[in-house]
Amino acid sequence: MTSRLNPYLSFSDTARQAMEFYRGVFGGELALSTFGEAGGAEGPDADKIMHAQLETPAGYTLMASDTPAGMDRSVGSSVSISLSGDDGDELRGYFAGLSEGGAVTMPLEKQVWGDEFGMCVDPFGVAWMVNISQPAA
Fold first, then answer.
1. How many angstroms separate the CA atoms of 97 and 6, rounded?
2. pLDDT per residue of the chain (137 residues) written in tens, 0 to 9
3. Runs of H (alpha helix) within the chain
4. CA-CA distance, 128 to 4, in Å (whole number)?
5. Which parts of the sequence belong to the Glyoxalase/fosfomycin resistance/dioxygenase domain (predicted)?
């Protein structure tokens, strides 16, 4: 059996919109489950997302949920999601999609180490880093 590491994002009440946005950027299959479907139909969080999982054609898995009432959630800038590889067209497309409606914090451009690199924050406040490696000489 293999193991894998997946980003799991927490939102106050926009997990559905964020995950639909990410599906628009990356493509793939999105599964959503609400607290109501898991037995909390009468609670204040019935329509909030308990668990979302996006499986993309590129092999990425992105997970998320809404924070239920009574739980603390703090937005931090200590974590970024990094995308890297050598498919420049694909990665440039992801960067453009993620930054649309958000903010480019570092333009995606050639860096001193030879790769293209850029950073952005998407419309949901999630920080992303994109690195396009150059072919070995």
1. 20
2. 566 778 999 898 999 999 999 999 999 999 999 988 877 678 788 899 989 999 999 999 999 999 888 777 776 656 789 899 999 999 999 999 999 999 999 999 998 888 999 999 999 999 999 999 987 76
3. 15-26, 88-99
4. 20
5. 5-130
